[in-house]
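Readers of this paper often ask what the protein records in our data store actually look like. An entry from our holdings is shown next, in its original layout:
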Amino acid sequence: MKPKKQNHIIFNNKCNAKYIHSELEAALLWYADGEIISSKRTIYLHGEYPAVSFCSEVLYAQRLLCDWQRKKHLNKKVYVRFKDKDKLNVKLENLEITLTGGGHG
């Protein structure tokens, strides 16, 4: 029997988030840490922010992407700021890490 292979992920973008598919897919696969996950995922609003679910966990897209970019999980005291102030724009180029909150994910 052949081992299972991870298929590409197809996102159903229910909240009109702006994202780069390859980045979000890579970030989710990095988070899964080798576990085979469903190839169909939904991006939805959780509060004010785009999110995806993994094993009953809510993963905010902006934090997931920043975690993946740095290959480590961000401390909960660290915030992700949207440079253009559009909370639906979770492209890495629009995200920056900050230590101050105030309307950031």
